[in-house]
């Protein structure tokens, strides 16, 4: 599929449920969890077919009808992968992303891939909401958390992305040529007249982290004209580690964000074992944004539908819930 043109619509698989009645849903969930054992089917059916906004209303109704916290009740009834998915769907998106970032930085190791995936793909408005949610939920700024958990150039990239300060305008051709020249110099294709590697690296970071998407698309085109190389391929070849991964993620998102997520979903299910965390995080966070576009990119690239991939790789209620989010077979 051709890239969606600027302004072409990204479409999620989950929408507002028509004829929605939060009290009715709250009652049905209460009944499903009453007594010994729970009716998981009923819980799944309701939660996967409502939009996030509607789920928040159900939480309110549940509290006013029963004086209880729906999230806490769900937590005591479901566990494992299914719980991670269902409780994720119940959280407002910014709080969900904040939690995923917190989890990625918890404990001994850091999950750099999760940090990159979230910070490199969210809009300015989404990033700002995540910052607020992070502070509210963890009483610490996201920037401080990133600062104490990462280091070096990688830390600077993440902190820059976490400001949510990307330009929103169109392209500027002269600027794009200049930006492409910086990219060519840092990626060692062009001669470096200035010879100062560090300041070039910083300029390259500034370009990738703060220029608008339409402008960066132009920069990548100019880069090809100038060098006969693709910028993504060159970054993969010339750079290494987390810095490379972060830059590649930004470039891929700018080129085609649904394809970026389709690749991540494919990798989460490839080979032995499933990376349920990544699979869940993407299905939950993209369900109302561009999951239909992701599905289209998935089948086009991998010759099987996302639906088939999920069916072949998961089972039980977790599988049912994922397929409900997926929203159909292609």
TrEMBL record:
One of its GO terms (cellular component) is melanosome. Pfam families: Annexin. InterPro entries: Annexin, Annexin_repeat, Annexin_repeat_CS, Annexin_sf, ANX6. SMART domains: ANX. The keyword Repeat applies. Keywords: Annexin, Calcium, Calcium/phospholipid-binding, Cytoplasm, Repeat. GO terms for molecular function: calcium ion binding; calcium-dependent phospholipid binding; phosphatidylserine binding. It comes from the Eukaryota. The keyword Cell cycle does not apply. One of its GO terms (biological process) is mitochondrial calcium ion homeostasis. It is found in: Cytoplasm; Melanosome. A pair of annexin repeats may form one binding site for calcium and phospholipid. Belongs to the annexin family. May associate with CD21. May regulate the release of Ca(2+) from intracellular stores. This is Annexin. It comes from Cebus imitator (Panamanian white-faced capuchin).
């Amino acid at each position: 599929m051709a890239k969606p043109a600027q302004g072409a619509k990204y479409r999620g698989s989950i929408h507002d449920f028509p004829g929605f009645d939060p009290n009715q849903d709250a009652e049905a969930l209460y009944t499903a969890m009453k007594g010994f054992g729970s009716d998981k089917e009923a819980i799944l059916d309701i939660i996967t077919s409502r939009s996030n906004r509607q789920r928040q209303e159900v939480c309110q109704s549940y509290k006013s009808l029963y004086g209880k916290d729906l999230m806490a009740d769900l937590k005591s009834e479901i566990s494992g992968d299914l719980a991670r998915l269902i409780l994720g769907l119940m959280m407002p998106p910014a709080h969900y992303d904040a939690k995923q970032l917190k989890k990625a930085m918890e404990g001994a190791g850091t999950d750099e891939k999760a940090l990159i995936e979230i910070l490199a793909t969210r809009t300015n408005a989404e990033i700002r909401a995540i910052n607020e949610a992070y502070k509210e939920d963890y009483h610490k700024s996201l920037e401080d958390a990133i600062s104490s958990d990462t280091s070096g150039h990688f830390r600077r990239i993440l902190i820059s992305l976490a400001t949510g300060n990307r330009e929103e305008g169109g392209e500027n051709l002269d600027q794009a040529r200049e930006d492409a020249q910086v990219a060519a110099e840092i990626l060692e294709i062009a001669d470096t007249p200035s010879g100062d590697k560090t300041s070039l690296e910083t300029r390259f970071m500034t370009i990738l982290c703060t220029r608008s998407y339409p402008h960066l698309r132009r920069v990548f085109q100019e880069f090809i004209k100038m060098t006969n190389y693709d910028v993504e391929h060159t970054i993969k070849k010339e750079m290494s580690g987390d810095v490379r991964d972060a830059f590649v993620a930004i470039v891929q998102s700018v080129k085609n964000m649904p394809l970026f997520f389709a690749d991540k979903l494919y990798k989460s299910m490839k080979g032995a074992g499933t990376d349920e965390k990544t699979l869940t995080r993407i299905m939950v966070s993209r369900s109302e944004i561009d999951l239909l576009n992701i599905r289209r990119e998935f089948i086009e690239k991998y010759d099987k539908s996302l639906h088939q991939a999920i069916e072949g790789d998961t089972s039980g209620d977790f599988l049912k819930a994922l397929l409900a989010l997926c929203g159909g077979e292609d």
